[in-house]
Design a protein that fits this description.
Length: about 375
């Protein structure tokens, strides 16, 4: 296939995979797409290990890194607070409510060493979203010769765009609204990812079908990737029909064989339908689409506190999420009921685990079939 995006990135198919799992990233790159490793919960040392591993696997083929660079978060004026200061800003009322919730569901406390480890190493909820934490990650990405740097939750800062431009690395940024896409374009972003509300993770309110053509028109000639609700070849064809130069998929990799999704969550995803997700601020403080569970239900109850702003909510819930995931494999447990994770509405199509390379191959095969079918609609001798 040939689009502006395959040419820009030197790939065979305009299929980009957002993933937290290095195996998925390498598999998609080796299948002719481009794997992008989500690095927001990595330490610089972990990121270096993962990117070196990917480089070995892909032998010269391109791969990318994704960082969260929110425009607004607590401490942004000061350049970011350290974890200790953030912890001290969490109201007792929130901690107590959460402790009571986990007690009610019979979730045991973390062993003391494990709790310390969470704080040192990060993990789900330990988002590195401030410039101080981000810079070392960006250095590691440059050292490992990434072919794309992507960011979400705001226009990437000028210094980052300038540095990437000097190094010849394209910058991509997610947009859930036209004004966000225009701001990215004005800042010099090379590739805009128009992400509809059906996407997993942080997401806006406009559907992909409505958002993509508007963004394509608004930012032309800057190329656009469509994201949100794309997991098969028919959806890839639809995205290209809307004017996108390629697709950016996140959820579909979560049930692949390579994915490190916790087994209980994988099982829930395989069984879930498309109406089993919702947008909730309960994991990060900003609206993010995730699987509905006893956790998201509890945060919607009247007695629940308001979610805290980013990154405080992530700091608040990190220990409880670890507590839950440590024992969620126990069948019939309260932890199993509480377990959730980010996923989009395409979860309803994710019914069979398979290797990531097969996901890519099936997308391409189905895309080709669709194109033939569409061509036949206007063939003269029909
Ligand atoms: C588990 C998960 C975590 C995500 N985390 C991030 C992230 O850290 N940074 C980011 O730019 N996008 C993140 N996203 C959004 C994806 O980049 C992508 O836009 C989205 O998954 C596309 O929609 P889909 O889920 O329908 O494929 C995440 C998505 C999922 C499913």
């Amino acid at each position: 296939m040939r689009t502006k995006v395959t040419e820009m990135l030197g790939i065979d198919f305009p299929i980009l995979a957002f993933t937290h799992c290095r195996d998925v990233a390498a598999a998609v790159t080796n299948s002719g797409g481009l794997g992008v490793l989500g690095a927001v919960a990595h330490t610089p040392a972990q990121l270096d290990v993962d990117l070196k591993w990917i480089r070995e696997q892909v032998r010269g083929r391109p791969f990318g890194v994704d960082l969260l660079i929110p425009r607004k978060y607590v401490g942004s004026e000061e350049g970011g607070f350290d974890r200790g200061s953030l912890r001290s800003m969490i109201p007792d009322e929130h901690r107590q409510w959460l402790d009571q919730l986990l007690d009610r569901y019979g979730v045991p406390a973390l062993p003391p060493r494990s709790a310390d480890q969470t704080r040192e190493e990060g993990g789900m909820g330990a988002l590195r979203v401030d410039p101080k934490s981000m810079l070392p990650l960006i250095e590691v990405a440059f050292e490992n010769k990434v072919s794309l740097i992507a960011s979400a939750l705001g226009t990437p800062p000028t210094w980052l765009i300038d540095r990437c431009r000097a190094a010849g690395i394209p910058v991509a940024a997610l947009a859930g609204r036209i004004d966000h896409a225009l701001a990215h374009k004005a800042a010099g972003v090379d590739l805009i990812i128009a992400q509809g509300t059906e996407a997993g993770g942080h997401t806006g309110e406009i559907a992909t079908m409505v958002l993509v053509p508007q963004v394509v028109d608004a930012v032309a000639p800057t190329p656009v990737l469509a994201a949100g609700g794309i997991a098969n070849g028919r959806q890839v064809a639809a995205a290209l029909a809307l004017g996108a130069e390629g697709v950016w998929c996140g959820s579909v990799w979560l049930t692949t064989n390579e994915a490190e999704t916790p087994p209980v969550v994988k099982e829930k995803f395989l069984a879930a339908g498309s109406s089993d997700t919702l947008r909730s601020r309960s994991l990060t403080g900003k609206p993010a689409r995730m699987l509905r569970s006893a956790w998201t239900d509890a945060w919607q109850q009247q007695d629940a506190p308001q979610a805290l702003p980013m990154p405080l909510q992530g700091v608040l819930v990190i220990d409880s999420q670890r507590r839950i995931h440590r024992v969620a494999h126990q069948h019939g447990s309260g932890a199993e009921q509480l377990a959730t994770y980010f996923v989009g509405q395409v979860v309803g199509q994710m019914n069979t685990p398979m290797p990531a390379r097969r996901v890519v191959a099936e997308m391409i095969e189905e895309f080709v079939d669709v194109m033939e079918r569409m061509n036949s609609l206007i063939a003269e001798d029909r």
